[in-house]
Write a structure and sequence with these properties.
The structure holds 2 protein chains of 2 kinds.
Chain A: E1 2-11, E2 14-24, E3 29-33, H1 40-48, E4 53-59, E5 62-63, H2 69-75, E6 77-80, H3 92-98, H4 105-115, H5 117-121, H6 132-144, E7 150-154, H7 162-177, E8 181-186, H8 189-195, E9 198-203, E10 206-212, H9 213-218, H10 220-226
Parallel strand pairs in A: 3-8, 3-9, 6-7, 7-8
Antiparallel strand pairs in A: 1-2, 1-4, 4-5, 9-10
Helix pairs in contact in A: 3-6
Chain B: H1 2-33, H2 40-57, H3 62-85, H4 94-117, E1 130-133, E2 136-139, H5 140-162, H6 164-174, H7 176-181, H8 186-212, H9 218-233, H10 238-258, H11 261-278
Antiparallel strand pairs in B: 1-2
The chains are: A alpha/beta, B mainly alpha.
């Protein structure tokens, strides 16, 4: 699905991501884990066209290099950003419609309300007045409105209560079963390794480890550095 | 006294509507592009000039003249967006640079019009006749300005709330980052907003020119008041621009009952100063996320 090779991202003199190669297979969840500042969000921004990047980024047969963000969304990439970034002054339904693709948008909204019943109950509520968990659900639903092939989730559990984190995990599993590929950037390594099949561990923008999530979860170094064991 | 009050209310409402329409364009551009368009007043002036030329040289009926004003405003705004904004905005300190490029464009436009058409005021006929409401007599052109203004404001509200392009404009005004994330073509929406503001300015020029007459300085006069309206209303607030624009027109008209026009200007700037001191974000402004 997604092939990233030799990805490099710089902010002025700061090298945020250096020579990173990874891929996300079809219908699987791949996690990028690492502490704050490891470069996870920069990777997602680079893929989305929100940060200028070197290297190669391909989605299926489409080379995303040189495409603008809206063209990458049309190609099949969607991002639920860190901090949610919902349109605070707009209603839940308007937030969904603004991210919608194609002509069957009302049907897509109905589908999202089926997937996120809480949003359906709050259809007309102003997004900025909702709780953090509800805004997170809205950010994910809004990303799904573009009917993506690859969904990127940036810190979807940050600041959320454990019960909401469990809901996010359930949701990711549902989306995988629907055939969606997911790239998850997460500081919460325990959660990420639980939900993803494969994970890449980043440190100061470089790849430190990679492997099947189950193997990484058993690795003593990962347990000590990222799982607090 | 009541008759004079009613008379001034109608006059002030029509003038205030022109402030509201110009300020709305300014504040939309600020809200979406985060720039201050110094050339907006000249778009109003050139729209009015287009109306004068269409009426004078082509003998076009007034409704066609209004269309000419809109088209001229849109075309000029598009050219300004192309020449002075598109290539500049995304650079480092782009917003500050745009302030200078639009200021330069406003001077070029003003000097060009003075050079080609001279400073002599020009006038055209709008909607003829006047209407009487008891002792209050209002020109039909002023009533037309009010009616068209209300229709346009309702139309803009409808488009912003109900259409895809309107939702995209509001989304971009809310967060440029999130707008990119959801796949909005940000550059396209910026140009659409800028051209729509130009259409508003051109239309307002064509609406007001039968009342104010045309001279190359009309852009300067209205843009200063529109800036006051936008600041008092709250930068980026459409409601603030409309309410404060109409309120400013009414205030000018009421003050003119009691004192010379120059004092009205002094009072308006005093209000601006007080607003900036007490509520720097303006009456309808809110802190941005």
């Amino acid at each position: 699905m997604l092939q990233v090779e030799r990805l490099g991202i710089r902010y002025g003199a700061v090298e945020a991501v250096d020579n990173l190669t990874f891929h996300v297979p079809d219908s699987t969840c791949v996690a990028l884990i690492g502490s704050n500042g490891a470069g996870k969000s920069s990777v997602l921004k680079g893929i989305m066209g929100l940060a200028s990047a070197t290297g190669s980024i391909r989605l299926g047969n489409t080379d995303l290099g040189g495409l603008k963000s809206h063209q990458r969304v049309s190609a099949g990439i969607a991002l639920s950003p860190e901090g949610r970034h919902v349109f605070a002054d707009m209603s839940v339904k308007e937030n969904l419609l603004v991210g919608a693709a194609g002509h069957d948008r009302e049907a897509l909204v109905t589908e999202m309300f089926g997937l996120f019943p809480r949003l359906g109950e709050r259809e007309k509520q102003i997004a900025g007045s909702m709780s953090g968990g509800e805004q997170q659900m809205l950010a994910i639903a809004r990303a799904l409105m573009s009917k993506p092939k690859l969904l990127m989730l940036d810190e979807p559990t940050m600041g959320l209560a454990p019960i909401i984190v469990d809901q996010v995990i359930v949701l990711i599993n549902v989306l995988k079963k629907r055939g969606l590929s997911i790239l998850l950037a997460e500081q919460n390594a325990e959660m990420a390794l639980e939900v993803a099949e494969h994970a890449y561990v980043l440190e100061t923008g470089r790849l430190k480890r990679e492997g099947a999530s189950a193997d990484l979860a058993r690795d003593p170094a990962i347990q000590e550095d990222y799982l607090g064991l | 006294m009541l008759d004079l009050f009613l008379q001034q209310s109608m006059n002030g409402f029509a003038q205030g509507m022109s402030y509201a329409l110009i300020a709305l364009g300014l504040t939309m551009v600020f809200g979406v592009l985060h720039i201050i368009n110094f050339a907006h007043g000249e778009v109003y002036m050139v729209g009015a000039l287009g109306a004068v030329l269409a009426a004078t040289y082509l003998g076009a009926p007034y409704f066609v003249v209004l269309g000419v004003g809109i088209v001229v405003g849109m075309a000029l705004a598009w050219l300004i967006a192309l020449a002075g904004i598109g290539k500049v905005l995304d650079r480092k300190d782009g917003s500050s640079t745009v302030l200078l490029t639009t200021f330069a464009i406003s001077i070029i436009l003003y000097e060009a019009v003075v050079t080609f058409f001279g400073p002599t005021p020009l006038r055209i006929e709008g909607i003829p006749g006047r209407s009487e409401f008891g002792q209050t007599v209002v020109t039909n052109q002023r009533l037309f300005v009010i009616a068209v203004g209300l229709f346009v404001l309702a139309g803009i509200e409808f488009v912003l709330r109900r259409s895809d392009i309107g939702r995209q404009i509001r989304a971009l005004a809310s967060s440029a980052f999130a707008a990119q994330v959801v796949g909005i073509n940000v550059e396209r929406i910026r140009v659409v907003t800028f051209v729509a503001a130009g259409a508003l300015a051109g239309l307002t020029g064509a609406l007001m020119v039968p009342i104010t007459l045309f001279s190359p300085t009309i852009g300067h006069s209205i843009i200063i008041n529109a800036f006051v309206v936008v600041v008092i209303g709250g930068m980026g607030s459409a409601a603030g621009a409309v309410v404060c624009g109409i309120a400013l027109g009414l205030l000018e008209a009421y003050v003119a009952i009691f004192m010379p026009q120059q004092f009205a200007s002094a009072l308006i700037y005093a209000l601006l100063l007080v607003t900036l001191l007490i509520r720097p974000k303006g009456l309808f402004g809110r802190a941005r996320a």
